[in-house]
Automatic annotation (TrEMBL):
Species the sequence originates in: Asticcacaulis excentricus (strain ATCC 15261 / DSM 4724 / KCTC 12464 / NCIMB 9791 / VKM B-1370 / CB 48)
Function according to Swiss-Prot or TrEMBL: Catalyzes the oxidation of 5,10-methylenetetrahydrofolate to 5,10-methenyltetrahydrofolate and then the hydrolysis of 5,10-methenyltetrahydrofolate to 10-formyltetrahydrofolate.
A single GO BP: L-histidine biosynthetic process
Stated family: Belongs to the tetrahydrofolate dehydrogenase/cyclohydrolase family.
Protein name per its UniProtKB record: Bifunctional protein FolD
Occurrences of domain Tetrahydrofolate dehydrogenase/cyclohydrolase catalytic (ranges): 8-123
PROSITE patterns named in the record: THF_DHG_CYH_1, THF_DHG_CYH_2
Subunit relationships: Homodimer.
Residues noted as binding NADP(+) in the record, renumbered to the chain: 173-175, 239
Residues of the Tetrahydrofolate dehydrogenase/cyclohydrolase NAD(P)-binding domain: 142-291
Length: 301
């Protein structure tokens, strides 16, 4: 039986990933004169979103890519945003387009995402990418599930035989951006996958069946320690800002301290899945640039 209480170093893994991406960006530049370009569009002035978008821009530049950020006022019309996306789609210098979510209430995020060229949809949110992932075709895979799978596989290799096949996976959360694509990825790895949500009956007992437990509900410390099966692998996707003793703190969807001694390995928040999301976004942008220029797509990193 493997040891318990191992903390998965998502920050360190993401750092290594970014270094390998930087190497590939340098090669692409030297051999093909190509610098991948990611454009991030943000509508409105939500302070948390702005900090996040600023970090993304800096990380993009740090791996040698071009980063452009377009800030639109909160009262921008949907038509104007769709027009901008059309222009970015047509601009061959732009390889990746990310429209920061959530959008203001007067816009339909599905309609906006649908307007993005699927080949430039580096979030992997377009129905074409979601559908391609579901049927097993090449697709741009959403960054958070992809980064989560990388950490999970690495932890399984470190603490076990590295094999996901036949494991029971429970994903708590059914969003299009995390829960559903995570389920597709784990199905591809031959897990037995259950997606739980707010209407699930007896969630604690269901979670206790999970060899792999993925928490993506967006509620601070929602998953209790005694919901975690002895020896489980726990991936905490939640990023919740809460106030403790007058100070802002970020916590996950799992009660980390209570889950830690039960889990074989668990991701912390922060420095778990979050940094992997950004690293995977950069890798998706690099791969998109290669596809758009008819160049071979580099393999796994
Ligand atoms: N179209 C779109 N695509 C996204 O991928 C997207 C989005 N919209 N809207 C907002 C969410 C949120 N998100 C995060 C990614 C990384 C961290 C991250 O790196 N967090 C660090 C630092 C946390 C901190 O200290 O603030 C960590 O967890 O260690 C956080 C949040 C991507 N999102």
């Amino acid at each position: 039986m493997s040891a318990r209480g191992n903390i998965i170093d998502g920050f360190g893994y993401a750092k290594g990933l970014r270094e390998r991406i930087a190497g590939r960006v340098a090669t692409l530049k030297a051999e093909h004169g190509l610098t991948p370009c990611l454009v991030v569009v943000i509508v409105g002035e939500d302070p948390a979103s702005q900090i996040y978008v600023k970090n993304k821009g800096e990380t993009t530049k740090a791996v040698g890519m071009e980063s452009r950020t377009i800030v639109l006022p909160a009262d921008t019309t949907e038509a104007d945003l769709l027009k901008l996306i059309g222009e970015l789609n047509a601009d061959t210098g732009v390889n990746g387009i990310l429209v920061q979510l959530p959008l203001p209430a007067h816009m339909s995020s599905l309609k906006v995402i649908d307007a993005i060229d699927p080949l430039k949809d580096v979030d992997g949110f377009h129905v074409q990418n979601a559908g391609r992932l579901a049927v097993g075709l090449d697709a741009i895979v959403p960054c958070t599930p992809l980064g989560s799978l990388m950490l999970l596989k690495d932890a399984l290799k470190t603490h076990d035989d590295g094999n996901l096949s036949g494991l029971n996976a429970v994903i708590v959360g059914r969003s299009n951006i995390v829960g559903k694509p995570m389920a597709q990825l784990l199905l591809n790895e031959n897990c037995t996958v259950t997606i739980a949500h707010s209407r699930t009956a007896n969630l604690p007992d269901l979670c206790r069946t999970a060899d792999v437990l993925v928490a993506a509900v967006g509620r601070p410390k929602f998953i209790q320690g005694d919901w975690v099966k002895d020896g489980a692998y726990v991936i905490d996707v939640g990023i919740n800002r809460i106030e403790v003793d007058g100070k802002n703190k970020i916590v996950g969807d799992v009660d980390f301290d209570a889950a830690l001694p039960r889990a074989t390995a668990i991701t912390p928040v922060p420095k778990g899945v979050g940094p992997m999301t950004i690293a995977c976004l950069l890798n998706n942008t690099l791969q998109a640039a290669c596809v758009q220029h008819g160049l071979p797509v580099p393999g796994d990193l």
